[in-house]
């Protein structure tokens, strides 16, 4: 019997991240995620993933400067974004934007320089599309700001506060990589055919946007809005489960305990969110876990990264339809690190499948 959804199937080796689902542990290149969230800047984590080692202060500054220099978008790509209807979903605009970047960089090799520039430009694509869809002037990037702060600056036109910077950095660090998740696998499959970096990331964006992967955080916020008050939580959750709906922000293919990123983001939300909002989120989390454990005791369903990602991005002030695209702004570092790893020791990824259809039919049979 094949493993449905490739559960527990090991498809290769990576040095980038270790996901220990039973222990609730996440490690990037040997460093615990808690350590990185507390001490590292997003650009340093990107360096860690791309180069396989912690940067010196000088190396960290150099990478930050290199990313900052690549934030501008070619005018042809801006024109593609301009041509999209204002109602376009930001993830669709981002997918189109990365594809357009590929079109204006034909024949691009899979190399580190393009991994760096694309990671810088993904944040710009989201911000520029956001400005265009609202009929606002495009804000040119600033080289003196870090990746997360510049992203917020290009969206709003104002320098972020210290609290916004801190939240953004923790979020970007935590989401930068995560083992063989669906979007990373997609990117590696595309890279394995000898295709280019932009195609691989375009495919990864398509995989990330689904609600079973990165599309959940907006729905978490919609759920919190629909629940409205702590007193409503239990009835709302029971009704949703009775309708066979999934509770967004809970359950994970690998983690059979709380996702360590959710624990860090819960504390970030506790520090920075409006207290009434945080109390609502925490009550919903507690009731959801109680009811999921009561209804599906064998499934070991716990809080995943998306639940408090939604709370933190809400506290940052990002519109909810940018949540998944912001996830992509972080994960591009991990995707490109995996694409480089795949290209460095490549063999075409081409699994097999059991045929269960009919045999022996004749086209011209009467
Ligand atoms: N709410 C209710 N029931 C759930 C949930 C949930 N959030 N998650 C899993 N289940 C149940 C399923 O209904 C199923 O129950 P059944 O056997 O009684 O039918 C059982 O648990 C197993 O579900 P699968 O889909 O086989 O589990 P899988 O490991 O494939 O799913 C997934 C993981 C997709 C994340 C799932 O937990 C889910 O849909 N969660 C909600 C969406 C979400 O939060 N997505 C973000 C994921 S994190 C990330 O990708 C960054």
Explain how this protein is built.
This protein is an all-alpha fold and 366 residues long. The protein contains 16 helices and three strands. Strands 1-2-3 form a three-stranded antiparallel beta sheet. Helix 1 (33-39) runs antiparallel to helix 8 (162-174), helix 5 (90-104) packs across helix 6 (112-133) and helix 11 (216-227) crosses helix 15 (305-316). It is globular, with a radius of gyration of 21 Å. The longest helix has 22 residues, at 112-133. It has helices spanning 33-39, 42-51, 57-69, 75-83, 90-104, 112-133, 147-156, 162-174, 182-192, 197-208, 216-227, 233-242, 260-272, 275-295, 305-316, 323-344, and strands at 17-20, 25-28, 31-32. The protein starts with 16 loop residues before the first strand and ends in a 22-residue tail after the last helix. The site of acetyl coenzyme *A has 20 residues, from helix 15.
């Amino acid at each position: 019997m094949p493993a449905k959804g490739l559960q527990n199937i090991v498809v290769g080796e990576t040095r980038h991240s270790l996901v220990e689902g039973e222990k609730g542990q996440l490690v990037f290149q040997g460093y615990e995620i808690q350590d990185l969230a507390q001490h590292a800047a997003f650009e340093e984590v990107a360096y860690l993933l791309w180069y396989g080692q912690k940067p010196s202060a000088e190396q960290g500054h150099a990478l930050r400067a290199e990313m900052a220099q690549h934030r501008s978008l070619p005018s042809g790509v801006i024109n593609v974004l301009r041509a999209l209807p204002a109602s376009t979903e930001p993830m669709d605009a981002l997918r189109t934007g990365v594809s357009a970047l590929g079109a204006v960089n034909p024949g691009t090799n899979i190399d580190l320089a393009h991994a760096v520039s694309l990671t810088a430009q993904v944040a710009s694509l989201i911000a520029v599309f956001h400005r265009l869809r609202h009929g606002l002037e495009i804000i040119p990037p600033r080289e003196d700001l870090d990746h997360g702060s510049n992203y917020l600056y290009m969206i709003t036109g104002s320098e972020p506060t210290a609290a916004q910077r801190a939240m953004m950095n923790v979020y970007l660090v935590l989401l930068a990589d995560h083992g063989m998740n669906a979007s990373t696998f997609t990117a590696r499959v595309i890279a394995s055919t000898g295709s280019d970096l932009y195609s691989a990331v375009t495919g990864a964006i398509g995989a990330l946007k689904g609600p079973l992967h990165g599309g959940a955080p907006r729905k978490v916020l919609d759920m919190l809005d629909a629940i409205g008050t702590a007193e409503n939580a239990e009835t709302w959750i029971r009704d949703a489960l009775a309708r066979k709906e999934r509770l967004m922000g809970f359950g994970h293919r690998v983690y059979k305990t709380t996702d360590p990123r959710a624990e860090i983001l819960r504390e970030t939300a506790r520090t920075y969110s409006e207290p009434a909002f945080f109390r609502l989120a925490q009550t919903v989390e507690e009731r959801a876990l109680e009811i999921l454990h009561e209804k599906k005791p064998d499934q070991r369903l716990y809080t995943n990264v998306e639940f408090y990602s939604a709370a933190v991005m809400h506290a940052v002030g990002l519109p909810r339809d940018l949540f998944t695209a912001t996830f992509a702004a972080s994960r591009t570092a991990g995707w490109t690190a995996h694409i480089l790893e795949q290209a460095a020791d490549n063999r075409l990824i081409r699994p097999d499948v059991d045929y269960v259809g009919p045999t022996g039919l004749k086209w011209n049979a009467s």
